């Protein structure tokens, strides 16, 4: 009797499921929607140094290694076997978006920069920010501050003048503390 009841309860469920599937345009579309809804969350992976087109354009042949480091940051790859080459690699992986990978190589002769390879493929700061915006609003925030904004920000961060402290009275010397020995005396 119990088996017959279980079979009978499956029939309405199967009928409803088939009706839902038949009512949709295609089974592949449903399968795709279900599979994307059930995929696990994948964290965004950002590796390396982002180098913008503006940073690459600020480089000039003959700059010292320190000047290049200040403009671009510390290179991701610098090898003992290729001491005259610095590589800046940037990779961004996000769910549902093709991975972005950028590569810039800076070559030196001695301590002076000789040439740059891969700088033409670097995005501008505004282009890069627009690819990060998940809302797809298309509006890129302003990435520069005016002189007035900089002065106002530095005025807000300027420390207030310290309040005058009253003259401190000399403190009495601390009383000597007697601690018990760490080990019990041997007997």
From TrEMBL:
Localization, UniProt: Cell outer membrane
Main location class: membrane
Annotated Outer membrane protein assembly factor BamE domain residues: 48-116
Start-end of Low complexity biased regions: 168-177
Membrane topology designation: Lipid-anchor
Domain of life: Bacteria
UniProt keyword terms in alphabetical order: Cell outer membrane, Lipoprotein, Membrane, Palmitate, Signal
Function statement: Part of the outer membrane protein assembly complex, which is involved in assembly and insertion of beta-barrel proteins into the outer membrane.
HAMAP family tied to this protein: OM_assembly_BamE
Listed PANTHER family: OUTER MEMBRANE PROTEIN ASSEMBLY FACTOR BAME
Protein name per the record: Outer membrane protein assembly factor BamE
């Amino acid at each position: 009797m119990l088996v017959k009841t279980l079979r009978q309860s499956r029939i309405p469920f199967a009928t409803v499921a088939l009706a839902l599937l038949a009512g949709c345009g295609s089974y592949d579309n449903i399968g795709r929607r279900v599979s994307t809804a059930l995929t696990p969350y994948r964290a965004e992976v950002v590796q390396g140094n982002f180098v913008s087109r503006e940073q690459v354009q600020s480089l000039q042949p003959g700059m010292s290694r320190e000047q290049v480091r200040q403009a671009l940051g510390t290179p991701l790859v610098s090898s003992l076997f290729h001491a005259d080459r610095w590589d800046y690699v940037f990779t961004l992986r996000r769910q549902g978006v093709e991975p972005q990978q950028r590569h810039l190589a800076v070559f030196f002769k001695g301590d002076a920069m000789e040439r740059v390879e891969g700088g033409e493929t670097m995005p501008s700061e505004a282009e890069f920010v627009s690819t990060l915006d998940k809302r797809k609003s298309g509006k890129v925030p302003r990435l520069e501050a005016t002189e007035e904004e900089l002065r106002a920000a530095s005025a807000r961060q300027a420390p207030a003048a310290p309040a005058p402290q009253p003259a401190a009275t000399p403190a009495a010397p601390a009383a000597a503390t007697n601690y018990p020995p760490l080990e019990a005396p041997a007997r």
